[in-house]
Specification:
single chain, 251 residues, alpha/beta, Rossmann fold, 2 domains, six-stranded mixed β-sheet, four-stranded antiparallel β-sheet, 7 helices, 10 strands
Length: 251
């Protein structure tokens, strides 16, 4: 499903968080949103998720207006927000319990997404028995088990150490390629955005607006060593310069 934002503006009293944002995300695409604090990245994701309504403009999914949350959009936050008293498999099954599925189909999906996210051996563990990276895998598996058209990620690896973060980046790209799900991800980490995305959208501040929409001309098969390549380093520097320039301009 294509995701389209047309002239989206979001105001809170006298403060304009987003102004006239237009963005098209095609089916199966991986788009990363970056920008300084206050550029409206999370606000934009909240509008796509249907948690809030824009002051002006429209958000549509496959031509249908987004008017609230729905199973066609899965959302994962930085904290993961897994249910502490549910096992891994029952966390993954949570959204499925709300859908009109047979038990056999629910069990099939739980088994498949546990395997896809490397959690099968941990299926009967509670979240307190898991590492931070494992809890984020549970949150992503739970969101994907409902088989949404769009997966929305709000800085999902921001609280992880560097090694775990890189492991999760490789994991996320593999899951994205295996499932074909459209992904829109907010991150403050420019290197992460360039590694993960097919496009990097830079948001400017005060008000939040699109300052640049940059394609990532890197191979789809991206081992971590791609981060050492001149093309990667050059694009990372370009994005960092854009973020700094539009942050200074708004200061």
């Amino acid at each position: 499903m294509a995701l389209t934002l047309s002239g989206v503006t979001m105001r809170y009293a006298d403060f304009t968080a987003l102004s006239d944002v237009s963005l098209q995300v095609t089916e199966g695409e991986f788009v990363c949103l970056v920008g300084a604090s206050g550029s409206g990245k999370s606000t934009l994701l909240s509008l796509i998720a249907g948690l809030t309504r824009p002051t002006a403009g429209t958000v549509t999914l496959d031509g249908r207006p987004v008017t609230g949350p729905g199973p066609e959009r899965g959302l994962v936050f930085q904290s993961g927000a897994v249910y502490p008293f549910r096992t891994v498999e029952r966390n993954v099954a949570f959204g499925l319990e709300l859908l009109p599925l047979t038990k056999a189909e629910r069990d099939r999906r739980v088994d498949w997404y546990l395997a896809e996210t490397g959690l099968t051996a941990l299926r009967r563990h509670l979240p307190k028995q898991l590492s931070g990276g494992q809890r984020q895998r549970v949150a992503i598996a739970r969101a994907l088990a409902c088989e949404p058209s769009v997966l929305l990620l709000d800085e999902p690896f921001g609280a992880l150490d560097v090694q775990t973060k890189e492991d999760m980046q490789v994991f996320l790209r593999r899951v994205w390629r295996d499932t074909g799900t459209t992904v829109v991800m907010v991150t403050h980490d420019v290197e992460e955005a360039v590694f993960l995305g097919q496009r990097v959208v830079v948001l400017a501040c005060n008000p939040g607006r699109i300052a640049a929409d940059l394609p990532v001309p890197l191979p789809e098969d991206r081992p971590l060593t791609v981060k050492r390549l001149p093309g990667f380093l050059s694009l990372r520097a370009t994005v960092e310069d854009q973020v700094r320039a539009f942050h200074r301009a708004a200061a």
